[in-house]
Hints:
- This protein is an alpha/beta fold.
- The chain has six helices and ten strands.
Amino acid sequence: MLLKINSENPSQRKIDLVVDCLNKDGLVIYPTDSVYALCCKYNSKKALDKLNFIKKLNPKTANYSFVFDNIQQSAEFTATYDKQTFKLLNNNLPGPFTFIIEASKMLPKLLKSNKKTIGIRIPDHTVALSIVKTLNVPILTTSLNTEDDIVEYEQDPEAIYEQYKNQVDMVIDSGYGGNKASTIVNLLNNNVTIIRQGKGELRT
Length: 204
């Protein structure tokens, strides 16, 4: 299903359709402030298995990100937010960043990973935030590309739909997307390290 949603003023009726799809273990391609990406409900094993199959990911080593509605919502899934971490997140989110932080015990066991970290995303995109806010729980997300590097991303949602229409349940069309991935920032061990420079300049 190709669903057109206005990027500036999304229809709540259409957002509800997306949320219904996610609640039924659906896999959705959606817009972010960086690139179009795959997502599912964070605790949906069926959808995550499907995502791993499409991306050819090993669930024991895969790097997923969690998309939240706000920083307070993300705090439940992290071990701790010290003053420095909170300030950094507050200065840069919503925005095109993925922050790697120590995870709490709320991390779902279905991820099958021994890693104790979580990637936090709060994209500066009305459609993405509206989905998470209405769903009322995080979504698990990963880019459409298999490479974990700065590469050319497909920007045309209709072309994305033609490529993935038989593999996912829904593709959201909010106009042309970007072609530069998020900047990944590691905040472990009281250090601030940019792992991948993508869209966005970090404000400290």
